Task: structure prediction
Amino acid sequence: MKTKFDIFILILILLTPNFLLGVQGQNPDPVIYINFLTPNTNPARIQWANLIEQEIAKIGINVSFEDLTGWGNIAPRTWAYPVGVEYDHIPTFEDGGYDVLFVGWLWDLDGDLASMYETTAIIPLGDNYYQYSNPTYDAIFEQYLTSVDFTERMSNSHQLQAIIYEDLPAIGIIYRGDLFGFKEGLTGIDNLLLSTSNYRIEYWDDPDDNIIKYGIPSDLSEPNIFGAESFYDKQWMSQVYGCPLKRAQGTHGWEPEVAESLYTEFNLVAGTQTVEMKLDPLAKFSDGEEVIPEDIVYSYQMHMTPLSGSADYSTMVYWFGDNSSIAVDADTGNVAGGNVTFEMTGIYNFWEYLYNIPILDKSDVEPRINARGWGILDIMPFSVADVNGDGAALVKSCGPMMLTAFDIVNSVVKLEPNPYWLGDPVDLDEFYLAFISGKDSAVASLIDGTIDIMDAQFFPDWTDFEGVTGIEGVLVTNLRHGELSINMKHPVLGTGELTPVGTPEAAKKVRHAISHCIPRQTIVDDILNGLGFPAVSTMPDGCVDFDNSLTPYTYDISLATTLMEEAGYFSTISEYSNVLLIIFMFSGIVSVYVSRKVNK
Result:
């Protein structure tokens, strides 16, 4: 009698929906069908796209098709779609646009939100291929654009980030990380400034010998800042050239270097901005010559001259127009500690960026160009071709270090402290930037002490440093993020018109549900091998303006299911599958019962 009663109870349990879903282990029937658009250029991104496809299936979202393709096919569906020419919006994937796109972006250190989510930036006018539009966001964004005060800009930025965090036109997945190899015991290195090539070398030191050798995977071949394109040549240049402003150690905002102070005001009606720069009276070039206002004016004019080949030419001309907009302040005069006035063509909330321009000694450089022409900008300093010292003059500046040797054959640069440096004392006696061929050679050089820092672009992994005494791997965010971009004109994911509830709020709940289905830590651990961080939002947490009050969306399938229900979608399991499961389980029970009878 007891056996029959047990079978009856088991049958009742088998018929309960929760048991069916749990035991069966299969996903509920799809209630939403979407398509993935995924670049085929990054294996890791393809892996997490596949993982997310599996996860969202648990809440009834089915990926009908994943288009793994190149950028040439992605652009016409997204930011290059002919909006405003033939169509008024980007449609769904089935109609030639996209539903969701897996993509990644590199941010600047400040975290500039311009041309991303505001209505006026919807393509083709900007980069808002999400087609996101929110009047509240737009109103705050207008204030943000004219927030030339740092505190005010930060406040507006945080408000904008909170709106995007809630509305999710883009769902942050991961932040990328850079893995460097360090000799243990190095001091004063700001890891984020190192990763973004803004480091302040005056704070660096190796207490063992006051010498740091930094191994890089690229040749060093550029003579000066004009025409410089190499990421690595710019690294040594940034330590040699003094600038009015530099990134601050620790906080990463802007602080005076050659300047003593900068003051700005703007005219909202005229749409113009004025900056008054007061030079530090103690600022000197590495030969002892004082930095005076005409050096600032001349340096900016050099960057605004096409023949200089400056990479900053377009930016400088855009914001300053022509040479007449930058002048020595007549009231203070052309003396050490004097002022320079800048008349900008518009209002720029990140105006400090424009005052990170390398400074040259006009009295030394201008006569050389007048005598021998612009061709001297191509002369390598300290080379046999530098017979007149023109190459060396073009890298003489007022930064914390000065160039003392350039081995062009072996790609090794040597820097020593500028004896007239006005800032905090430089701790190093020597700094070397040296090319090393290949990751294995770089790891070996770090282990044997030939170098003290191994650059992240050798792409080491944690195993290269494990169990080796005296070295360590250091992981740093690199301001790259990976996201899932949403087409906000999609009738389910964006407008919500085809959800059961039929509202934008229902679509937002679906987006929230998707975000809660993303196992960010798993992606970092298993796909990126620990070389990254779970994303909180689409702005990397290393950006100066990042709102650190935001927290990551948790991986929570139960919560995601609830959000789907609030959007009008309820999980079910197909009747056919239920019947098969019941038959299978019931047959098993009967077999056990018969077996027991036979054994008796």
Q: What stands out?
A: The radius of gyration is 30 Å.
